[in-house]
Design brief:
Helix 4 runs parallel beside helix 6. It contains 6 helices and no strands. The longest helix is centred in the C-terminal third of the chain and has 27 residues. The chain is an all-alpha fold. The chain has a single domain, classed as CDP-alcohol phosphotransferase transmembrane (TM) domain (Four Helix Bundle (Hemerythrin (Met), subunit A)).
Length: about 180
Amino acid sequence: MQRIWTISNVTSASRIVFVLPAAYCLTTDFPHHREWAVFFIVIASFTDFLDGYLARRLHQVTDVGKIIDPLADKIGIGIIALCLLLVGDIPLWYFVVVLGRDALIFIGGVYINRRKGIVPQSNMAGKIAVNVIALALLLSIYRTPSLEVVFSGMIWLSIVSMVVSLAIYVKRLFIGRNIVLKS
């Protein structure tokens, strides 16, 4: 049986803890609330890099970690995107695309796990997509006229990265050599 409470798994789970005060800061008006939100989001993002490093360095790569890490990403992105939608900083269609992609990947992962008994691992395109989405969400917090072109570009770059990562996940689900589904 694999250990659950490894330092890398706790680091992954802490990402959700840091997103909660960020959500509060985004939805509550007080002096410098957006700066505080960015502070907590940056800390949460740092845990995303740290957990993988620790898992490899300390030989703590586990199936639990393969679930917690991307799930923490999805929960964190979802919470921040919902807050930004509620305060009017991102459009509804973007929120739906972000959550829709994550829901499809999550459902596909559960399907693979049930059919094959393995926990699919994140791919590099998915990690890139999460980081580009995070940058787009961070830019939406500071939407000023001088950054509007950058924000729009980041939104579309995140859409492209989401499509590419989703295509890779779908290919791995239906065509991938490393995942053969039980009948």
